[in-house]
Amino acid sequence: MTIKQYAFLAHAHLSAQGSTSLTRSQIHELLAAAAGFATHAAFHHQAVWCDVAWRDTGPTPDEYGVIQRCLHFGMSPDEAERSAQGLVSFLSASGYAPVRLEELIAAFASDGDDWEEAEEPGPAVAADWVSTDLVGRIQQGFDAMLGEFPLLLEGLEAAAARGVASAHLAIAYLVEPYAGLSHEDDRRFGQELRRRGQWSAEPVGFAEIAAGTDRFVRVVAKHRYHLLAAARGGDRRAMLLTAESYSDPGVLDLEPSDDMDPYEMADLADAHGRPELAYQWLTVLAEEGDVYAMRALIEDRSETLFRAWVWMHLSRLLGRDLSQDRHVAITEDGSEYDDDVGGPAYVGGHDGIELAPLAAEENTRATKEAAQLFAIIEGRYKLT
Predict the structure, then answer these.
(1) What is this structure's pTM?
(2) Which of 160, 256, 291, 320 has the fewest CB within 10 Å, making it most exposed?
(3) How many angstroms separate the most distant Cα atoms in the chain?
């Protein structure tokens, strides 16, 4: 069934009940109202219809909302009530359910570690039926998904075509289990994207996939297209994932947050000619007590002498004095040498850093700032 067919059935039912004045476009508005949305446009941006019976989902259609829309169309109160009751009766008996895009994404996320956070103001929580009756069935196989969920797939692709980033992300999540490649292949794809300066491709429709012979290639292309489109649409979850998989630089323009890995962000910034951002991310790490980041700032980032001494004093407070040599035995591949394994040993580690001295007043200020940072780190450690 298609969305147009669904609306046609609802329209036919209401016409048979005596509500003959309603147009097809008004039917779409009433269906959106039954789903709890003020307008069809709002529904289009936040939800889609899916191939699950409404009666199996728990929530009932919003009869009051339907009445209000009917009154808005100029119906009399009695006619509005009759039309609302007729639509609710149809939906409860044979109607399909609406599903919010964020609920759909949350249901996928509950099975893994990626994309777990919904957009502001907080994470979405999927209803039980979305996880079991919908996502559970979707994950039974690609052919089963194509055959059982034409209404859902049509709605998602239509929303994606309108530029709804969460619809792109939902599609990417939906096809991801069927588009898996090795990490090396994904990394190679990311390198090709960077070489071309190209972060998108022509969309591949579900109908085209079903009819084609090179299905896996098409599914992989569809997954990447929609994931990248979601990132380009500003969805931070997609941006974080494309940064990890394809070194997509879009994430660099987001406000820093706890779900970003500072080392990955620093490497990404360097790879895309943003050394000032790499410096900022390394500074975040250093302020959190990462001595390797402190060393990188001093040796590789032209840190000012004053800031270098702040890191030096902080490293000493943390028991990892950067002025001291730290040499260890390692194997040929750089791993720590194991006497029980034996074999040739090599010298690894770091030489101590030598800094020009600060004036007494400046050194006192650097020592004080390091102590303040240490107190924050120590307080955070005690809380955990």
Answers:
(1) 0.71
(2) 256
(3) 92
Segment among 68-72, 186-190, 252-256, 264-268 with least mean pLDDT: 186-190
Question: What does the pLDDT read at residue 123?
Answer: 47
What's the pLDDT score for residue 36?
Answer: 94
DSSP state of 325: -
Rounded Cα distance, 102 and 86, in Å: 29
Query: By C-alpha distance, which of 287, 286, 236, 288 is closest to 260?
Result: 236
Residue 44 has pLDDT above 60, yes or no: yes
8 Å CB contact between 332 and 338: no
Q: What is the pLDDT of residue 122?
A: 43
* Alpha-carbon gap, residue 370 to 315, rounded angstroms: 9
Identify the CA nearest to 5 among candidates 129, 154, 206: 154
Task: Please give the pLDDT value at position 115.
Answer: 37
DSSP letter at 332 equals T
CB-count burial class (<10 Å; 0-12, 13-18, 19+) for 203? middle
The helix/strand/coil state of 338 is coil
Q: Is 308 exposed, middle or buried (0-12, 13-18, 19+ CB in 10 A)?
A: buried
> Residue 74 has which token pair?
């100029």
Q: Contacts for 134-141 with beta carbons within 8 Å, 24 or more apart?
A: 134/50, 134/52, 134/99, 134/104, 134/107, 135/104, 135/107, 135/108, 135/111, 138/174, 139/177
Spatial separation of the C-alpha atoms in residues 203 and 225, rounded to whole Å: 6
Concatenated DSSP letters of 158-198:
HHHHTT-HHHHHHHHHHHGGGS---HHHHHHHHHHHHHHT-
Can you tell me the distance from the alpha carbon of 104 to that of 118, in angstroms, rounded to the nearest whole number? 11
Please tell me the predicted confidence (pLDDT) of residue 311.
Answer: 96
Cβ(19)–Cβ(30) below 8 Å: no
